[in-house]
Amino acid sequence: MVFKRLINYFISLINLVVIRLGLCDSDNIDVEIVYKSNDFIIVNKPEDIFTNNHNKARPSLDVILGKKYPHLVNSKLEHSFYFVHRLDFVTSGLLCIALNKRACAKASSAMQKRISQKYYIALVRGHVSKDHLDLTNPIGYCAKEVDGNRKMCNVDEECCTEPRDAHTRLVVLERGVYMSYPATKVLLQLVTGRRHQIRVHCSTIGHTIVGDYTYSGRKDTSPHRTFLHSYRLELGVDGINVQTNDPFTEAKLNGLWIPVEYVNRAEDDCSRLFSRYS
């Protein structure tokens, strides 16, 4: 069993290297459409894929979708689709795309007015001691990385520029071990939507997301991905509520993650779970 886990782990690492070096053919990357109407499609974005980018040689969602569903492409748009919001390169999960300008305006308005609700699942380093946390540190750009990957930081750091209010709510689902080290599975609700918000807030409280190379000070290199997933999207438009399966179960991670304490379940009504702690 241990040998099988190691084999699966090294296969994952090889796949990661192939993707990050741009050696992966976008024709071979599968993107699941989990919801479709005349106005919207919602996809389950794989990890380590750009939402869109100007370098078409690197796999990105706009190119992949354009090849698989050419009839949905809007040739008047630079990136072929109306992306209502975006996910980080490292983040997997639900992402909403509007199929026309009117629908994009409706969804964008719902997000700006915080009618939309976004929930994420993550594995973080260490055991989070409290079952619920409200993370409210303002977030800004890191002045040390103006020419780098636009890393963000919290307002307490001297390098922080242009800080803006940020609010993430966290509920513990499970505590356990990942590759023999303490870890916690958490459900997170984005109240605001700043760049890298969840990743910064988790690192600020000393519980960096497993595999987050950038916010671990470039130390967390062993996992095959960053364990952050856009789990549920309540769009607030046309009654659209979509949820994926949990990608971070013991079975799906080939036994590398072993929960030992079950605290909460990620229910269909995620808001009800958070209301327990209000």
Overall description:
The chain is an alpha+beta fold and 278 residues long. Helices cover 19% and strands 29% of the residues. The protein contains five helices and 14 strands. It has helices at 2-20, 61-68, 101-112, 197-204, 270-275, and strands at 32-36, 40-45, 82-83, 92-98, 117-125, 132-135, 139-142, 152-154, 160-164, 168-178, 181-190, 228-234, 241-243, 257-262. The strands form two sheets. Strands 1, 2, 3, 4, 5, 6, 10, 11, 12, 13 and 14 form an eleven-stranded mixed β-sheet that branches. It has a three-stranded antiparallel β-sheet with strand order 8-7-9. The radius of gyration is 19 Å and the shape is globular.
Concise description?
The chain is an alpha+beta fold.
Secondary structure elements and their pairing?
Elements lengths: L1 H19 L11 E5 L3 E6 L15 H8 L13 E2 L8 E7 L2 H12 L4 E9 L6 E4 L3 E4 L9 E3 L5 E5 L3 E11 L2 E10 L6 H8 L23 E7 L6 E3 L13 E6 L7 H6 L3
Parallel strand pairs: 4-12
Antiparallel strand pairs: 1-2, 2-4, 3-4, 5-11, 5-12, 6-10, 7-8, 7-9, 10-11, 10-14, 12-13
